[in-house]
Amino acid sequence: MAKGKYYITTPIYYPSDRLHIGHAYTTVFCDAIARWRRMAGEEVLFLTGSDDHGQKVQRAAQSKGMTPKEYVDHIVPTFKELWRRLDVSYDDFIRTTEPRHIRVVQEIFQRLYDQGDIYKGSYDGWYCTPCETFWLESRLGEEKVCPDCGRPVEWVEEESYFFRMSKYADALLAHIEANPDFIQPESRRNEVISFIQSGLEDLSVSRTTFDWGVPVPFDPKHVTYVWIDALSNYVTAAGYLQDEAKFNKWWPADCHVVGKDILRFHAIIWPAILLAAGLPLPKQVYAHGWLLTDTGKMSKSKGNVVDPIRLIDYFGPDAIRYFLLREVSFGQDARYSTEALVERINADLANDLGNAFHRSFSMLKKFCGGVIPEPADPEELDTALQALAEETFRAVDGAVRSLHVNTALAELWKLVRAVNKYIDEARPWALAKEGDSRRLGTVMYHVFEALRIIAVLVTPFMPRTGQAFWQQLGQSGRVEDQGLAASAWGGSRPGTAVQGGEPLFPRLDVDQVLEELLGEAAEKDQGAAGGAQDGGAPGTRGGATGPSGVNVTGGTEGLITIDEFAKVQLKVAKVLEAEKVKGADKLLKLRIDLGSETRQIVAGIAQHYSPEELVGRSIVVVANLQPAKLRGEVSEGMLLAASDESGRLALLTVDREIAPGSAIR
What we know:
Layout: E1 5-13, H1 21-39, E2 43-50, H2 55-63, H3 68-85, E3 92-95, H4 99-114, E4 118-128, E5 133-135, E6 154-163, H5 169-178, E7 183-184, H6 186-197, E8 203-204, E9 206-207, E10 223-224, H7 226-231, H8 233-237, H9 244-250, E11 255-259, H10 263-277, E12 285-288, E13 291-293, E14 296-297, E15 305-306, H11 308-315, H12 317-327, E16 334-335, H13 338-368, H14 380-401, H15 405-426, H16 428-434, H17 437-458, H18 463-472, H19 479-482, H20 510-526, E17 552-553, H21 562-566, E18 570-580, E19 588-593, E20 598-603, H22 611-614, E21 618-622, E22 628-630, E23 633-635, E24 638-639, E25 641-643, E26 649-651
Helix pairs in contact: 2-3, 5-6, 11-12, 13-15, 13-17, 14-15, 14-17, 15-17, 16-17, 17-18
């Protein structure tokens, strides 16, 4: 079993709002790798944190009447709570406002300035504050909006200090070409090489237009900009300038895990800073793909994010962890929908994993008194299962170490399915009926030994599930403490009493899930919804619910342009018919008149309005939503409503008669 040390990092997340399911993927991905390596006997440093500084934070704080420090101190605990709920086992949570980090930032800035790698100049250009990005005018169009987030850009002219990044282009390119694994996957490596070959420019590394940042040590009217401030967190946490022995132990980092949208920061800017500072480069930068919704890349600025807390509350942390780790292929984008999540739970967790354990518990209790029997000499069918179990460890270990976590789970599930197939072929029920106790004992031993190994190997990915199965199998202690060595064949002791238990992953009805999630959104957050895609302004209770019934929230500032608002078609509609949706306590089906056409919408308001109350009323609807299906009924729009803290609901309507189909302007 491999020993050693391993330093893995997530990006430090920006506290402009609560985190979404895309951030959860990055962090759970790193957590699974960290847990696996710890169970392999390695010493691990797993770092995450928050990037507390910046103009966006300062503006958000001002809009709420708070100081920037008060604002981030309010947001950052929600990060830690999410990681606690997802069982993320980080070793260090760093904040850029910590004294240990401020010292490192100022020392690096001073060193680069003293050696001539930082100089004073000025810059101007079109700047997007939320994205912290300058744009060429040709990319902005007549509206002068950011190509990434769609928000207005600003013309900025400012004195600044610059880092001579261009000076290190050749050295950086040579390093990338000499170390093929430095940037993964290969497609991202090629993108970075092309970008460097096109020519690197010097980089602005200070600001004077805001003061929420680390002061430049020799010029306090400047604050250090994000590049040197945020990126150097990785060496701060490793002990740089504080604990030489610790730093020598942990640096360079083994792997920076980042989203592909911030790869250039980590594969070009950060290595160039390290080269200038005379520090070793990280061993690897891995850029994963995006988690997409029906409206594209998930981002707070676009308002299409999925709230992981709602999902954890409903499905539990391990189902979410499994879905994220299994669904996203190495370096590729993946699509999130609640339907896909339920399908994974039903197929992989209920049918495959849950069925293998639960049916085995039932048979052991019925045929062997709930005690693992003594095996006799194995037959070919038995040795094949043992060989697969031993090969599974090697396959999963190799996949995790190459960052192919979804492949690791696919390999593990080959063993899960093989157990079910083995049971079907060995037919222990028939052996019991025939009275062949010798063969029955061998079969049941092999079943439970394979299940014990599965419990060990699944633990880094699904910690609660692995521990629950471990206990149900009659094993003592914490499975993580046993390490991966416990996955060696032969660890089950004949005579062990197996406790068993209820299925951990019962099958779910997707229509019921959508109804219940939609109903929660309507009652707790939204008012009413029937298939919306974009979130409302944060801080309000009149947002929308996505087509999969998952709460969708926007960014903290909650500002949209008039052009963005104009995309939403609000119209007056008259309710022609209303009835309850069969089998759904919270849903009503309405037929509405929109003037030029009639439509059907489904809304989670049945506990607030009877069908009779609605017929003949004029309501306000969003008319240009993509249709969604709820409990088998198609919803072709969304009615609007407000709700208060007590959960009471009030429909939005008009104060006088007006023709159906009239536009709300």
